[in-house]
Design brief:
Elements: H1 3-88
Length: 89
């Protein structure tokens, strides 16, 4: 093997090793990013579920307040009459 062949072989071996190390480092980075992305996706799904739950609770509360308001509106004239009747005795 000539000096040029040894030099080329050595250089190629070094480049191959450097490339392999770079690929391994990138694979680790990608794996970490994938885990982070999965965690963020799970957190997002949890937040979306909480939003849906809070929206449902808000609708129920709004309906309840509306029923109470209607009840108050219907009771007001009766209370006025009752007050008049009690005051007139």
């Amino acid at each position: 093997m000539s000096e040029i062949e040894r030099l080329l072989t050595s250089t190629l071996t070094a480049l191959e090793q450097e490339l392999r190390q770079t690929q391994e480092a990138q694979a680790k980075t990608l794996s970490g990013q994938d885990q982070t992305l999965s965690a963020h996706a799970q957190a997002l799904r949890h937040i979306q579920q909480q939003i849906a739950s809070l929206s449902a609770q808000q609708r129920e509360s709004t309906q309840h307040l509306q029923r109470l308001s209607e009840l108050s509106t219907r009771l007001e004239p009766l209370l006025t009459r009752l007050s008049g009747m009690l005051g007139g005795e």
